[in-house]
What does this fold into?
Amino acid sequence: MKDHKSLHKIVLLLLALLIPPYGVAQMESNTQLKAAYEEDQEDRKHGSLSLYRDAQRIKLVKTLLEQKKLNSAEDYYRAALIMQHGQGSDDCKQAMTLAKKAVLLKPSHKQARWLACAAEDRYLHSIGQPQVWGTQFVGAFEYSLEPFDRTAKTDLERAENHVPPLNEILKQLEQMNSNPKQ
It folds into this structure.
């Protein structure tokens, strides 16, 4: 019996030495994706949105996914954010899936947690269903959250995912509508 326990400890030790710790093999981010993400964010910062450039970045993400070239939680987050800027419900659904994968790989990734919720809301909106988190403000002259199922998620669930509580979301909506862009 003692030999069995010793053998078990040796096997565990060998496994620990041979298998890298969880996530270590996935630490190096994809540089091509990082550049596309930075370009995406730069476009949005300066208001120079381009459906063509968005489409090119989305095409890159899809290619990298097919080639299995996403290596880290940060890669999945960046890919999700790029997909979030797509035009169809499939892109929104892919953004949601990618953001959730980033959270799975790194549960403490605050931006990925929020993005998973925002992508879910955007996806639901794109298929004509009510959003559940309250992240999507829509409208041209007056902003709205509708359709919005205010009871689908609790403020505790929102807090866990770095989404503001419902009362803050409603205050933000009121503020956006009382101070329209001039």
